[in-house]
């Protein structure tokens, strides 16, 4: 009996020791050995971030998120995180606390990124300044691939709902209307097609009659005559070209004759002009004499018709003066 109790005591002590060792290890892991300081950062979205999320500086773990608080800032909801960081860890002013994911499969964490303040300090000849405990570090939301894909998916969904879906609906309505009109017009189209085929068959029959055995000789004769006519037209065109060339030569010769006899032609023209002037000056007297002569002949023929005997019995007639102007 005593032996069994002793064994139970040993087992109990061993289990208790293991439990205490486990508690100490968990405490060591949960509570850092060093003292810490609290800093703050404000974000619009903290997707994937929770109490206990890791805080790194340039990739090195320096603390964790210990508190998440919802606040209102500029009329919008923001999330204020309490960052518990190792005491004495220097964070330059101008640094930013970004929500990042080291890779696609890892969880989100907060990484503090410094600006290149060393170069700025050399240029401005000023010492670097660091955040003090309790300061608020500039927080930047996550710019991960998944968030970008989610944003793109939302934009595509919005475009699909606002543009593509109404477009497809209108297109479907138009197609239905066209289908209804076609279904109404198909019988008429079929009837018109049948009429067209009948008319084409009749026209083909008439063409066959025209091109029948009886008319083939006439058609051949017409084509032969047309061929002969075209040949004659071509020959006539050639002759006309020759005539045109001869006329051009004649005109050249006439021009040469006129050029060589210009003085004689001018003299003939002047003589003709003088003759015409003389005739035109006496044309009135000549016309008057011709008119008087025609009157005398008219009176003579009238008296002869009235009394043919006057030709035998000559009667002395008084002389009349010549008509003058």
TrEMBL record:
Q: Where are the transmembrane segments?
A: 7-27
Under InterPro entries, the record lists: Mce/MlaD (IPR003399), MlaD_Phospholipid_Transporter (IPR052336)
Q: Signal peptide location in the record?
A: none
Q: Pfam families recorded for this chain? A: MlaD (PF02470)
Q: List the keywords (alphabetical).
A: Membrane, Transmembrane, Transmembrane helix
Query: What residue stretches are annotated with the Mce/MlaD domain?
Result: 37-113
Q: Does the keyword Cytoplasm apply?
A: no
- Membrane among keywords: yes
Name of the protein: Mce/MlaD domain-containing protein
> What is the protein's species of origin?
hydrothermal vent metagenome
Q: What is the lineage of its organism?
A: unclassified sequences, metagenomes, ecological metagenomes
């Amino acid at each position: 009996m005593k032996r069994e109790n002793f064994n139970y005591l040993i087992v109990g002590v061993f289990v208790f020791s293991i439990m205490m060792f486990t508690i100490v290890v968990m405490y060591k892991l949960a509570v850092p050995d060093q003292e810490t300081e609290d800093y703050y950062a404000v974000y619009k979205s903290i997707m994937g971030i929770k109490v206990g999320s890791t805080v790194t500086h340039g990739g090195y773990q320096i603390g964790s998120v210990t508190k998440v608080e919802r606040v209102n800032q500029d009329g919008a909801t923001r999330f204020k995180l309490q960052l518990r960081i190792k005491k004495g860890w220097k964070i330059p002013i101008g640094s930013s606390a970004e929500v990042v994911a080291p890779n696609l499969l890892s969880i989100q964490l907060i990484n503090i990124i410094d600006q290149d303040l060393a170069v700025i300090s050399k240029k401005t000849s000023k010492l670097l300044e660091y955040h003090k405990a309790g300061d608020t570090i500039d927080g930047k939301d996550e710019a991960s691939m998944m968030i970008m894909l989610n944003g793109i998916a939302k934009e595509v969904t919005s475009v699909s709902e606002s543009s593509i879906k109404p477009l497809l609906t209108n297109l479907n309505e138009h197609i239905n209307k066209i289908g209804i009109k076609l279904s109404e017009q198909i019988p008429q189209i079929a009837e018109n097609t049948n009429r067209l085929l009948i008319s084409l068959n009749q026209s083909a029959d008439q063409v066959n009659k025209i091109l029948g055995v009886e008319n083939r000789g006439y058609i051949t004769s017409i084509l032969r005559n047309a061929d002969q006519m075209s040949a004659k037209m071509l020959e006539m065109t050639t002759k006309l070209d020759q005539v045109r060339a001869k006329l051009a030569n004649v005109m050249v010769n006439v021009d040469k004759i006129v050029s060589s006899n210009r003085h004689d032609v001018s003299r003939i023209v002047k003589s003709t002009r003088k003759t015409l002037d003389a005739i035109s000056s006496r044309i009135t007297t000549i016309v008057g004499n011709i008119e008087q002569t025609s009157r005398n002949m008219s009176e003579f023929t009238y008296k002869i018709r009235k009394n043919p005997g006057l030709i035998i019995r000559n009667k002395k007639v008084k002389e009349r003066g010549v008509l003058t102007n």
